[in-house]
Amino acid sequence: MKKSFGAKIIVLSAPVWCVGSYDSENRPNVMTVAWGGVCCSSPPCVTISIREATYSYHNIMEREAYTVSIPSGNHIKEADYFGIVSGKDTDKFKETGLTPVRSEIVDAPYVDEFPLIIECKVIHSYKIGSHTQFIGEIIDIKADESILDENDQIDPEKIHPVTFAPVLRRYFAKGSYLGRGFEIGKK
Amino acid sequence: MKKSFGAKIIVLSAPVWCVGSYDSENRPNVMTVAWGGVCCSSPPCVTISIREATYSYHNIMEREAYTVSIPSGNHIKEADYFGIVSGKDTDKFKETGLTPVRSEIVDAPYVDEFPLIIECKVIHSYKIGSHTQFIGEIIDIKADESILDENDQIDPEKIHPVTFAPVLRRYFAKGSYLGRGFEIGKK
Lengths: 187, 187
Prior knowledge:
Strand order of the largest sheet of chain A: 4-3-7-10-11-6-5
CATH architecture of chain A: Roll
Oligomer: homodimer
CATH superfamily of chain A: Electron Transport, Fmn-binding Protein, Chain A
Number of domains of chain A: 1
Number of strands of chain A: 13
Order of helices and strands of chain A: EEEEEEHEHHEEEEHEE
Low-confidence stretches of chain A: none
Helix content of chain A: 10-25%
Strand content of chain A: 35-45%
Mean pLDDT of chain A: 92
Distance between the termini of chain A: 29 Å
């Protein structure tokens, strides 16, 4: 028997994505979003959703580019902070001591200290309701050497990404390995 | 120093969402997607992306509705199976022994044995490239009594949702609690 909760957002496993953008004076900004994810394999694309009231919204509309910097658990306080204050009146990089790096391939900055970076060009935007969605084509993925394995490939055991439970507002670390996709279902 | 991986999808913490739909003969189908997430707060909406070649694509186009059934770790084999075979020639519910339930509010079935259900009406679709995105307005969220706490609210500690690492194709359980959102960043 299932209990109804109505039209609410109670969805576990939302990502914690720190979205980088430049304002009209080339000041780097970063805000944390939980409304985001991959949305296409070819071309590889991600989508993020942002309210029009945010500083980042106007930056991304103007520059048609953004980055996603994925924090590991040891930067969760900074990531949470990036979602609380506005870039309108705060230099979030300065306040946290983290380093903005200008992407060489898209018109946006990323967070140098975070282990995994997605660099995107906006190919489509759509106002849904409170939030506008920005579909970004992935131009490059960059990873810290610290999260690479002996074959120079990304090792998810080393990245310690964070997930977020909306409404409940709880952060979780990634848990234990369960099995291999497109394989365990064959049994 | 960061290493470039090119325009690939290497993004951790994708969800494991089992999307329910009906075909033209009212046969229930379910497929697993990792390209999905919340995309708007008001109205509350999720987005899923599906290839046109899938059976579910045509079902959802026609019915303009779908459900998302979120499995816990103990149904990860069934969820993986739902992403491997096609509903064109397989009754995935029959093969797994899981139960399709007709939603009373949207024109789609959900998986009775899975603890958390999102029932959606499609309000927008957009062909990105290989995948078409279906934005679904959440009409109701339903949860098993087994995952409710003493106040009849959803307890994320009880649901044991799964995340998926694309490309690497690894499933992970949810890990340990890290802290409270919009709070730990204030420190």
